[in-house]
## 1
Amino acid sequence: MAYIYPKTYFGDKIINTKDANLSIASSAILYGLSVYTVFPVIVNKDKKLAFRLHEHYKRLINSARIIGIDTFEPQWSEAKFIKAAEEIIKTNGVKNDAFVRASVHVCEQLPGTRSRGQKTVLSIFIYEAKPILPLSGARLKTSVWRRIPDYAIPSRAKVNGAYVNSVLAKQDALDSGYDDCIFLDTSGHVCELSAGNIFIVRDNILITPAVSNDILEGINRKTILELAADLGMKVAEREVDLTELYVADEIFACGTSTLVAPVIEVDKRKINSGKMGPITGKIQKSYLDILNGKDKKYSNLLTTVG
Ligand code: PMP
């Protein structure tokens, strides 16, 4: 298990992580009614940098809006949220790259299956950053479990309960000896991995499923689309067939805890030569430079948090 830092922001104060608990009778526990986001903190020699805090706050708010959790947004402005995040990062004296998980929990007890007008509590805790896929190359399996459609549980909302879908698919992939799964939508188009978005390269065009293809609107996906456009690459957001993966020149996954991970095999089919491709390599390097604050052009995406 990854190391969890000892202090957590909970409600409106900092407490010991071991004391940051929710009732077994809360909606968060009963129905998985919490929305969340995870952002990285990169520790450089002289400072700590948090990546795209504005987008993470916005997605948290959007997730709450979709689910109908309406008590968080009026209480938590972006400035207040960012101040709380900074405070908890400083209090824990984070020394190595870390992930910060901010969640809005519906803590009302036994309210029945509803979301409006319910008490909420914000938690922010920090844990050691460990990539979830091998950066040397991941092997993926198309899942027998389909991605939850927008008309059932919207993938666009990062809601805890929906992650049962990811657990089913990831465990199925692990049981079969793969690193992760590929989710298809109900009509068989490619969506994403259990906790990361997917890109393929065909004839020098970078292609990724569209936001209307039952995916989480990944913040790193957005970053890579912006970066690729800046590098002069052709990009397309469109439906992707499963068999396009088998014949792709390159495939990679992206996400906060995935970084940019080359995919070298899908369903026992080697992707091209079975090694990281040149476009993936270029994107991976440029992305890591942005994240580590080495690319001044993108320094506006980073907030100094200590
Ligand atoms: N899809 C899913 C299902 C995820 O859980 C994640 C991780 N948050 C992503 C994509 C990637 O999103 P992000 O780039 O914002 O980390």
Note: The first strand starts at residue 7 and ends at 10.
## 2
Amino acid sequence: MRDDCYCVIFDLDGTLINTEAIVDEAVVSVVKTMKKSVSEREIFDAAEDCRGQRPLEASVELCEKLDLHDVVKPAELLTKCGEKLQWDGIDIPDMPGAVRLLELLKRKKVPMALATSTSAKELEKKMKSTGRTSDDGNHRDLLKYFDAICCGDEVAKGKPDPEIFHLAMERLGVKREDAGRCLVFEDTPHGVSAAKAAGCCCVAVPSLRREKFEMYEGADRVYHSLMDIELEDFGLPKFEDWKEVKTVEFVKEDGDASLSSQTRKYERFLKLDAFLELTGPVIRGFGRGSKMLGIPTANLDVVPLKQQIDKLAPGIYFGFAKISSGKHKSTGIHRTVMSIGYNPFFNDKRKSIEPWLLREFEEDFYDETLSVLVCAYVRAECNFTTVENLIERIRKDARVCEEALDLDLVEGLDSWKHWFDDV
Ligand code: ADP
Ligand code: RBF
Ligand code: MG
């Protein structure tokens, strides 16, 4: 059993703010002009695969993956992307669950520090562009949460060296022998190494893809997203915003390392601070839903919805759906449970949005316009040993959705009256 933590240190890029998506976009726009034969989707996928490495290494891999050698050298591609990447005047979104976590810790008066590899100057630029996409549209000052801020240009050696974490602890007034009671949040293997070398307790929330999870072995715990953190496992204050569905029993999944879930009795969900509307034509999916699982999912194209779904942690959600064009236009509002992510059981390389509408349809509705209102988060995506277990779990998600809505447990639907009325 570890000692209780009493202070927290955060990495910034990829942990609290989503700069990765902006980098990907710069890469797409630069590469598109260089090589016409490669599609936006291919560039996007390749850029995502290259994430988490140092810039030049990422550029080398990208040139290889997209076979760009005849049009550009890696170093030149990097410069071109750098020119595109002016942080001012753009929106840098928060990572899903970041503000919820910072708010709780602040409210509970837990001392917090930022330990970022970004230089002080870059940090200032990034902070000016953070949170413009927040619900109220106002700039959100993330720095206000921190009792100490440490930047990359304040230390001689960057991560994976522990120096920046030593500096952060010093500024928080934490003694070296208490390092193990300092909880660090990191998204990259380098960051995890640095935190562990400093003697801290470290939670990894990888921004790399699932296939690379073994790179995070040094971390004390790995979570899929900040939404899944169980702070009480580390002796810190517990989130109180989960709602239990007391008619659906909780069963611990294989490989669930969480201490707090050992005493959980019921399934639960987390209402989103801001509901999210996703609209688009229903496309062909992987051809597995009805055939393999007996669970049809009306897939939406992720590419035009990328910015919106980046606001959500990959995972299982529920809400409502309506079909607003074609033959099924007037069939009304349907409850829906959906997966938004990479479907670990099938190890998909691409993200998908897959709503299962909780009613029977006599025929398919491909190409018709589907609008989904995402209201609540249920859980992270997981892997299963058998397809039966996956099916059972999806059916249980549907029960969580049905019960939560039957019992009227989701608040805030009133402000979406226009969406419900417009059918
Ligand atoms: P795909 O892999 O192409 O998405 P699925 O086997 O998942 O195929 O079937 C999904 C299709 O089935 C949807 O696009 C839709 O046209 C149809 N469908 C019928 N009933 C439903 C339902 N209740 N929920 C979602 N899609 C449904
Ligand atoms: N796939 C997974 O690999 N892991 C999951 O935990 C998972 N949960 C799902 C939950 C719901 C509510 C739905 C509708 C789907 C889920 N799937 C999951 C996705 C499923 O694998 C996918 O819809 C089919 O493979 C069809 O592409
Ligand atoms: Mg489908």
Note: The mean pLDDT is 90.
